[in-house]
């Protein structure tokens, strides 16, 4: 990748994008969240297990957080329960989409091709087996995190995210 150069001739830093799934990633599917402080949150008849500590650490990242979930814009209601600000939605699923369907990979591929920014994709089931091959071929720094859906994102996995975000990246 050729870094973009500012008029002064220095490469400019590029904030990573973090694509966030909800069910099985931000929300654990079992009553025990990976952060150990999960509390039930009911929304539209569904009970999600959310962690305020996870919300605080996500909110502190020097990255652009984007929802990539079948919840669409309703994910902001979930984020709000974790003290996250409203976040942009990376893409909306087709009407017949499933949480693990190929539409999420298509959204990530299209946005990365357009923006060429470092990215992290956190999803318990939608990252296909060929995503690593694709990621290695695009010359854009990336990190793919697939949490265990029963516990959601863990502190150790978020440590990896924070380390990736803290590394200098140029665009």
How would you sum up this structure, described in words?
The structure is a single chain. With 171 residues, this protein is an alpha/beta fold. The model is unreliable at 1-10 (pLDDT under 50). 27% of the residues lie in helices and 15% in strands.
Which properties best describe this structure?
two-stranded antiparallel sheet, alpha/beta, 171 residues, 6 strands, four-stranded parallel beta sheet, disordered N terminus
Q: Can you count the helices?
A: 5
Structural class: alpha/beta
User: Distance N terminus to C terminus?
Assistant: 8 Å
Question: What is the chain-wise order of helices and strands?
Answer: EEEHEHHEHEH
The low-pLDDT segments are: 1-10
Could you give a short account of the major beta sheet? Answer: 4 strands, parallel
Question: How are the strands ordered across the major sheet?
Answer: 4-1-5-6
* Backbone shape: globular
Strand content: 15-25%
Q: What's the number of extended β-strand segments? A: 6
- Radius of gyration equals 16 Å
Average pLDDT taken over every residue: 91
Percent range of helical residues: 25-40%
């Amino acid at each position: 990748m050729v870094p973009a150069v500012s008029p002064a001739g220095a490469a400019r830093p590029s904030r990573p994008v973090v694509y966030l799934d909800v069910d099985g990633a931000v929300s654990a599917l079992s009553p025990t969240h990976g952060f150990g402080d999960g509390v039930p949150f009911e929304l539209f008849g569904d009970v999600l297990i959310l962690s305020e500590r996870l919300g605080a650490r996500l909110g502190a990242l020097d990255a652009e957080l984007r929802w990539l979930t079948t919840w669409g814009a309703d994910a902001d209601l979930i984020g709000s329960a974790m003290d996250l600000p409203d976040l942009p939605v990376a893409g909306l699923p087709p009407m017949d989409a499933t949480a693990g369907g190929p539409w999420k990979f298509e959204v990530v591929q299209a946005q990365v091709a357009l923006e060429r920014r470092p990215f992290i994709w956190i999803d318990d089931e939608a990252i296909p087996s060929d995503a690593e091959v694709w990621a290695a071929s695009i010359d854009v720094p990336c990190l793919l995190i697939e949490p265990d859906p029963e516990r959601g994102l863990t502190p150790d996995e978020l440590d990896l995210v924070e380390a990736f975000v803290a590394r200098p990246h140029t665009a």
